[in-house]
């Protein structure tokens, strides 16, 4: 990219990143949403994804600490509240734990992180380091995967409710809130990026930041696929399902 893009052209380039690289395209998600994973494989997904969910407010706190404008901070801190809640038992992390509870995973085991795949830990922590070390503009741009999340959420909830009897609307309640939170947050971040990326170099940096975030999400599914689907070689010490069911099997 050599010339300055208009705000509309920049948005188009960012949306193209999602079209090509968002993790909705990953084979693991197609298996998950299509009902072709067994009970233990769904457990492994929920357990590993917990670490990503738990670290989102840590990531957002790092972004918040770098904002010198009070109005910007007031907007961004809502993301932390969304995940942490105002009180114990509230917020997105608590709702994710209801999912892992519903899948029969011991809550203490989930939150201990003992069963994580190494690649899950490395990917999530790389994201936290990215927002701490890169510019504020790049940190905000990396959150723009939220532009693409409503589509995958709708597909996931519909597919899982249709194909697995071991999940319910209640256990999947985390995703209900994200259908409104993610578009709100994405609209704000996109407007910020389009306004503040004023040079070709800055525009290229925000595109690369979004590509990096897509990579963070993609590699987590790579780890799950090769540990629990093919060739089923989970890392020593990582979660091993103790109960397995055929895809979609009624328990």
What does this structure look like?
- Residues 12-222 form the Thiaminase-2/PQQC domain.
- This is Pyrroloquinoline-quinone synthase.
- InterPro entries: Haem_Oase-like_multi-hlx, PqqC, PqqC-like, Thiaminase-2/PQQC.
- Its EC number is 1.3.3.11.
- With 251 residues, the protein is mainly α.
- It has one domain: Heme Oxygenase, Chain A.
- It is built from eleven helices and no strands.
- It has helices at 7-21, 27-33, 39-64, 70-84, 91-102, 107-112, 118-133, 136-141, 149-163, 174-196, 200-228.
- α3 runs parallel beside α7 (118-133) and α3 packs antiparallel against α11.
- The radius of gyration is 18 Å and the shape is globular.
Rg, rounded, reads: 18 Å
Structural class: mainly alpha
Using the alpha-carbon principal axes, give the shape: globular
**H and E order:** HHHHHHHHHHH
Q: Can you name the CATH architecture?
A: Up-down Bundle
Q: Please count the helical segments.
A: 11
Question: Helical residue percent?
Answer: 55-70%
The first-to-last residue Cα distance is 54 Å
CATH class, anyone?
Mainly Alpha
Mean pLDDT: 94
Q: Strand-residue fraction? A: under 5%
For the biggest sheet, the summary is: none
CATH topology: Heme Oxygenase, Chain A
Compute the number of structural domains.
Answer: 1
Number of strands: 0
Q: Give the CATH superfamily.
A: Heme oxygenase-like
Which residue ranges are poorly predicted, with pLDDT under 50 across at least 5 consecutive positions?
A: 244-251
Catalytic activity: 6-(2-amino-2-carboxyethyl)-7,8-dioxo-1,2,3,4,7,8-hexahydroquinoline-2,4-dicarboxylate + 3 O2 = pyrroloquinoline quinone + 2 H2O2 + 2 H2O + H(+)
Domain Thiaminase-2/PQQC: 12-222
Keywords: Oxidoreductase, PQQ biosynthesis
Organism: Pseudochelatococcus lubricantis
């Amino acid at each position: 990219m050599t010339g300055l893009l208009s705000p509309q052209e920049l948005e188009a380039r960012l949306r193209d990143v999602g079209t090509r690289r968002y993790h909705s395209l990953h084979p693991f998600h197609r298996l998950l949403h299509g009902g072709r994973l067994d009970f233990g494989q769904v457990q492994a997904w929920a357990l590993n994804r917990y670490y990503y969910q738990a670290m989102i407010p840590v990531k957002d706190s790092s972004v918040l600490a770098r904002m010198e404008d009070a109005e910007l901070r007031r907007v961004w801190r809502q993301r932390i509240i969304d995940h942490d809640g105002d009180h114990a038992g509230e917020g997105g992390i608590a709702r994710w734990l209801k999912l892992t509870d519903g899948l029969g995973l011991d809550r203490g085991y989930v939150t201990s992180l003992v069963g994580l795949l190494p690649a899950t830990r490395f990917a999530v922590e790389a994201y936290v380091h990215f927002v701490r070390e890169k510019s504020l503009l790049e940190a905000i741009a990396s959150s723009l995967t939220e532009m693409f999340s409503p589509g995958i959420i709708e597909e996931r909830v519909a597919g899982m409710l249709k194909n697995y009897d071991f999940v319910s609307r209640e256990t999947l309640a985390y995703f209900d809130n994200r259908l409104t939170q993610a578009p709100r947050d994405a609209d704000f971040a996109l407007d910020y990026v389009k306004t503040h990326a004023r040079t070709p170099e800055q525009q290229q940096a925000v595109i690369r930041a979004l590509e990096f975030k897509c990579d963070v999400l993609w590699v987590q599914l790579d780890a799950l696929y090769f540990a629990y689907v093919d060739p089923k070689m989970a890392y020593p010490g990582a979660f091993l399902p103790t109960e397995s069911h055929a895809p979609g099997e009624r328990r």
